[in-house]
Design a protein that fits this description.
The protein is α+β, with helices and mostly antiparallel strands. The protein has a single domain, classed as Jelly Rolls (Sandwich). Strand 4 and strand 5 form a beta hairpin. It starts with a strand and ends with a strand.
């Protein structure tokens, strides 16, 4: 995967994102009609294969899985908990050139209204490492999300990606996120 630098110094990670994936079209229709879609792991595998024009290699899958063992403790838990680990990156999509760009690092911020527990402060997390950004599974997931959301509403998006895990062990309650666990949150801008 070749990365290019735009005039503004932003790294263009994924360019010319297009697909004739029937799976994406089916999922889009389900979301349009039902406001959600339950996508099984096999459907995700099939769709990523259609988007990338190949299935990710077993080595890439294992490498991607193993990145969850290198997350950093979330030190911003207002309840004092040490049970969450994460990495974070921000992107922007462009429907005019079908691309997704990695933006310069910025902290994650949510209002108190949106996140009563941890909102109201800028939270600085470890950046998602380059090895993850270059991984073909991650690439497939990003393209999947781009094609789905830009297909539902063709607009540019501000994208926050969080890799996180919640550790639960004896004597430590690992509380889930206050919202539904969504790996990629897309916001229009």
């Amino acid at each position: 995967m070749a990365h290019t630098i735009s005039k503004r110094g932003i790294i263009v990670i994924y360019q010319n994102i297009k697909s004739n994936s029937l799976s994406i079209e089916t999922i889009k229709e389900q979301v349009k009609n039902n406001y959600f879609s339950h996508v099984s792991s096999e459907q995700v595998r099939q769709t990523i294969g259609e988007i990338l024009l190949h299935y990710p290699a077993k080595e890439s899958i294992n490498e991607f899985i193993n990145t969850w063992f290198n997350l950093e403790e979330d030190a911003f838990m207002a309840d004092g908990g040490r049970y969450r680990e994460r990495t974070h990156a921000v992107f922007a999509s462009s429907v005019s050139d079908n691309s997704v760009c990695l933006l310069p690092y910025q902290p994650h911020f949510q209002t108190k209204y949106y996140n009563e527990l941890n909102g109201g402060i800028a939270r600085y997390f470890k950046e998602i490492p380059e090895q993850v950004l270059k991984n073909e599974v991650f690439e497939g997931l990003m393209k999947f999300a781009y094609l789905l959301f830009s297909g539902l509403k063709p607009t540019n998006y501000f994208i926050e990606v969080h890799q996180f895990r919640i550790k639960a062990k004896e004597g430590v309650i690992g509380l889930p996120t206050p919202k539904v666990s969504i790996v990629m949150a897309f916001h229009t801008f």
